[in-house]
Write the structure tokens for this entry.
Amino acid sequence: MKPLPRLSFPGAVDGDGHILEPPDLWERYLEPRFRDRAPGIRKDDQGLEYLEIDGRMSKLVRRGMPAGLGAMDRVAGYVYDREPKTGIQYVDAAPLGAMDAKERIQRLEMENIDRAFLYPTLSIFWVAECDDTELTQAYLRAYNRFIVDFCSDSNGRLIPMAQLSLDDPEAAERELRRAVAAGAVGVFVPPFQWSRKPLGDPAHDRVFAAAQECGVPIGIHPSLEPKWTAPGRYGEYTSGKYSFFLNVTAADAVRHAFTSLFQYGVFEKFPTLRIAVLESGAGWVGYWLDRMDAVYTSPQGIPARQVLSEKPSFYFRRQCWIAGDPDETSLAAIMPIVGEDRFFWASDFPHPDHPPEYVPEVERLALELPESAREGFLGANVLRAFGIS
């Protein structure tokens, strides 16, 4: 295996890394009455792997796609061969640390990274196709139990994030409280909900209240989404041949969910609620705050002024944090304008929609920052956002 790059700065924390869930996770962690409906990796009649959801072939994750979900290292030549082979490429091609907690610690040691916040892979894929609310809640309870167990022997170096679905806000509140009591340091939601209610909708207030009471942040993280979420501007523009366009614009969904929090006055109602904006880049946030502030003060901002006593930028600097991609070239210039303590970095490892050389890019970005901002960006800011000393 080609040696992994090593960061020269101490105290680094990966604010958004991922795992590849073991294919049998749901068979092991689902409540017994749902186990015959467990998601998993299967092979079609051509031998190509696909994601099965409730006994059906995924429409989005098929034709060998699962084997490429952890391809970041392979792109850069960091190939890790494991034995014995399982015959499932999704497993056999998994990079170092994507599917095994001890390997993940080994990877952190090699890269000189202290800790990593962990998010799922399959669970941000199947959520776009499972419209059965009860089954979705069961799938997520199983994943959340698993990720807490996965991180439990890491001495705090692997940090579990629980996933919620807000289609049933009462169930989501229960799961938030259960997962946090079990060891999750925060929760995250995809930008869409099957109920088609925006994130900031008052229907979700009980979840915001529970997060505020428990002292944990809510993250907004991209996911695959149902076709009905796509704008109809270009007609049917959602197939794989548009992968460049779709990946570049995927952050729009996160921005929309984030903006809805201001539309509905969430930060005024929940003044100590913390929000983390994830895997959407961060260079845009300066413009976005300027635009929200401008609209807030204009005649079009009357609805917002009725629920927010301050400009949106005030609440961002008080209650929000955002993850930057290491390869962003404008981030060092944006941070002093918005607030240096609001930013942290994230690798997105092992997903191949980001360049693989995240450690050298973090090194470059850290050197571009003034010393006063460097420690925060490398790790202290994200730990503060999640209440971790």
About this structure: The two ends are 35 Å apart (CA to CA). The chain has 16 helices and eleven strands.
